[in-house]
Amino acid sequence: MTDATANAMQPPARAERGLDVYNNKLGMWVFLGSEVMFFTALIGAYIILRFGAPGEWAKPNVVLAVPLTGVNTFILICSSVSMVKAFAAIADGNRKMLSRWLLATIVLGATFVSVQGVEYWKLVHEGFTPAGYTDGSHVAELVAQGKLAAATGGLYGSTFFTMTGFHGFHVTCGVICLIYVWIKSLRGGYTQQDYRGVEVIGLYWHFVDLVWIILFTIVYLI
Amino acid sequence: MHWWLPAQGSTFAGFIDTLFTVILIITGIAFFVVELGLLWFTFRYRARPGRRAHYTHGNLKAEVIWTAIPAITVVALGIVSNHYWKIIKGRNSVPADAYQIGVHAKQFEWQITYPGPDGVLGTADDFTLRNDLHVPAGRPVVVHLSSEDAIHSFFVPVFRLRQDVVPGMAINAWFQATTPGEYELACSQLCGLGHYRMRAHLTVMTWDDFQAWMKTAAQGATS
Amino acid sequence: MATTAQHQRPNYVLIWAYLFGLTILEVLFAFEMPISRNLKIVILLFLAAWKALLVALYFMHLKFESSRLRLMVLIPLPLAVILVLAAISEHVW
Amino acid sequence: MSAHHDDRSFIRKYIFSTDHKIIGIQFLFVSLFFLLVGGLLAMQIRWQLGFPGRPMPGGGILPATMAPGGVILPEYYIQLVTMHGTFMVFFAIMPLLVGVFANYLIPLKIGAHDMAFPTLNMASFWTALLAGLIMLAGFFVPDGAPRAGWTSYAPLSARPDLSGASYGQMLWCISLVCLGLSSILGSVNYITTVINLRAPGMTWFRLPLSVWALFITAILGLLALPVLSGAAIMLLFDQTIGTHFFDPAAGGQALLWQHLFWFFGHPEVYILILPAMGMVSDIVANGSRKPIFGYHSMVFAITGIAFLGWIVWGHHMFVSGMNPTLGSTFMVTTMIIAVPSAIKVFNWMGTMWRGNLRFHVPMLNAIGFVAMFTIGGLSGVFMAATPVDIHIHDTYFIVAHIHYVLFGGSLFALFGAITFWYPKMFGRLMNEFWGKVHFWLTMIFFNLTFFPMHILGMGGEMRRLYDPTQYDFLKPYQPLNTFISYSAFLLFASQVVFFVNFLWSLKHGKAAGNNPWEDNGLEWSLPSPPAHGNWETVPTVYRGPYEYSSPLVKEDYLPQYRKLDTDREPAMTPVSGH
Ligand code: HEA
Ligand code: HEA
Ligand code: CUA
Ligand SMILES: [Cu+2]
To answer: Is the CB of B187 under 6 A from ligand 3?
Structure first.
């Protein structure tokens, strides 16, 4: 048996009937729809809790280090550009540049996750955890000085780590998939005639970037 | 055993029961139309040799009719219901002169705080009883609901009143009891393994009896 | 589709510059501007939405997709808004 | 794709198969097993309610933490209720409707070789099975199964010190995250398949209503399940790493859980009914030998229900302390949702009107569906009216509603659908006589079991109540409870007929042939069971799915794939065969 079942259609040779979009890409878009709802649950919970919070929410840049994350945001945006460059390269039939841009994307993505890891480590060290502020820590001191609202402490940690954590998890999954695509590209798995894998992983990658754009604004800046 | 709704013990009971009856009539009509129609069709149009079904893809007029009638009915029902909903639970529905009682729910008991003889909650003569709710008849009563742990629900079937008691929220519910007597207050939200026995006595008394009871109960509680 | 993307390829570096600039602008607004908090929030959300739109339209090529696909992609958004609005209505009015 | 030459090993063919038909059948066996589990749990519930505090026959085998000496403990009772609801909703009805029939029917009915993503499809099945086993494991961990109801209201579910269950409650969350993943994978597959893989000539408005319903259901699942997953993850974090999402003591909100859960939960209940409605439409048209009445409005009704389904979730929270203005809004939307349901009910009746009704077992069950769903739907109108819901919320009136829509609705439709497509799945028909016996017994005992629950609910008997006789005002109702329990036992016993018929017919049923019901769908052009890959080359579709008793032909059915001399080839060219 060939593995041809329904996937046999190769773009740009011809798309399947229906939406004029080939299966994998349509499937990815549909999947992203569910991702939107997943992040709606997490981000929505944050917004709802923040609106209903008994005390004032922490001011930006008091607990979370905005400069570090600003740089990280920049890195993720760059990775989106390198991703789209990889896509453009293979659309032109340039396989070498495809692999290079993919590698760049992987490195940038991995850097993002690592920086986030460092950020988490620092935060937990300073006493900011998913469960709230640990006693006697730096952050607890800020609370004592009145620079930080105590009442919302638990919620701040809960929502922050859950939202950014799941975003980081998505980036990590993306990096793993990209490594797979990259290896396949090295072996000549993509051609100007068929580069569906690159386009599909690209969609996912840009989506994750998009979620970060929202998160950065509403978690770090507002 | 009642085959119908329980005895009516508050001013809400009248119109809730009426609304229930109205809905029963409306849905009853729909019920008979559908069920008798199905029965009739199964009998009338059962397959017989040589018969052939009538070939049709539908009838716009019929469909418009049976869309419009339910639509109008349910919207009207909604508007009527909303009127009563606002009386019972609306934002500013609690009458200003309502008699205040504090009800604190915890696994698995009701702690009822009475305002004491002075009739004002939050003063020194307040006292608290366990699982024993007394309310006066003939005047509005507001219960200030709070919860210690899980979500509970304040449910008095004869009053047709139910309100969840949610930790972290201060919720008020009001009613006006009509008939003095002995009733029960139930917890109707799953709140743990003892949920089934989270029950309190409810005594509805005339205003005079209530005043008298309040005096003795306050003394009993403080001594 | 690949073919469309080939014919009308946006200037990706320009988009990148936009995103970069908007991010800087956001940080500036968040920390350096003496404006009311509510206005700040509105501006920040607007800028974030702008960035998100750039990513969706150009990097994800939505601009070059059929309108049917674009419409399909939009379906979840109103749902998200409805959920959040209903749940915060408690604290807003 | 070659349809005949099949040299896959046994494991690839029947265990780790990527064939949508095999996956559908795997789902069938697994979810029937979970249905049985849910039924057994229900029997224990009924024992306790009918005979509170009396040792349950055979209950002696249960450990002392559940039922010492066969007497059910309060904590075990809540576990039973929780697991009964959870299993029935998530692991019996949902996989039966979506896992089994979306998988089995979509490619066959739209004329595709297989799903768009066969491997994802396989992954979806195995994650669902894993999720079910994780949930089942709840009974075997210390502290026992989850016990906060199938709705897992926080903070009870979030705090082991309140519920008394730590591991069980975590497993509930983990299991549902897995199930969410499985459903999302499935939905991605169904949606892509329906959009992209329809056979030439299979335009949107030639799709059978079952496919329409399954397609819309997939969209609901795609967008609803991730919300549940997100909520379950937050709940899990509250239980494990000390976050405070739902913990009011630290600023969290108890109602947040309810909003998230019901925002998922209400679309979920339509996930549990729409496919049933779709398949009933197919069966009613077939049994009436008449085109479905008002095909287009049926499609719009499905879409309308699905859309409205997103904006009614607050009707589960009328007395939760939610903003009363929201209560009014949700009441109106909830009321309006009765309208598309009305369209569907009347169109089914319109289909039967002046038909030539064949009462085969699927048809009987489909009529049963219409009759029972109507009762369940109408009881929904009582609850939609907020003032009335104040009294009947969280009483047996709701339990009656649940079972009228889910058993009387979904499960009757499923009995019909299983009987209807059984010959395609296994090549043999189920026994007609015993099928009818099963239908009538189920119909009788179903109503005897669940109708009296309305009375209990009006009287105020609360749900999830271990022992109603604790309350003086409920003591008089005890004979009714006992009566319900006897009926429930007989209802369960009636299911044995189905069970035996199902298994017996696998081997001994009458050979089916290609098209035993003289149906119009594409799947009936294939041998029973169809080979891997379904078609050599996909068929061409010439007409809508409900051309029964058409004047164009002598027979009273005219399949979608049958080409008449007057038919033109559709504009869409077939995908090149390979
Ligand atoms: C298959 C599942 C299913 C379906 C289809 C429905 C359909 C409906 N449900 Fe139900 N519901 C549940 C499953 C379902 N429900 C479950 C499981 C719960 C309990 C959850 C829990 O707490 O555990 C629940 C709870 C529930 C509640 C919350 C009650 C409470 O907890 O207090 C409400 C309140 O409004 C409600 C309403 C409705 C309505 C209005 C419909 C409508 O869609 C019904 C529409 C149909 C008709 C109305 C009949 C056909 C129409 C006609 C014949 C036309 C004539 C009609 C009129 C003129 C009115 N449901
Ligand atoms: C589809 C859903 C479904 C189904 C079918 C059922 C079926 C039954 N349910 Fe239940 N029920 C719920 C969904 C369902 N239930 C839900 C969601 C709740 C709320 C839970 C909560 O409060 O959290 C509930 C709650 C509930 C209660 C309330 C408990 C309480 O609040 O304290 C009761 C009480 O009597 C009850 C009883 C029954 C009975 C007697 C059956 C009987 O009909 C059972 C009959 C037996 C079967 C249907 C099994 C048959 C088996 C086969 C046919 C297998 C064949 C196998 C092969 C061929 C391989 N159920
Ligand atoms: Cu308190 Cu149930
Ligand atoms: Cu609902």
So the answer is: yes
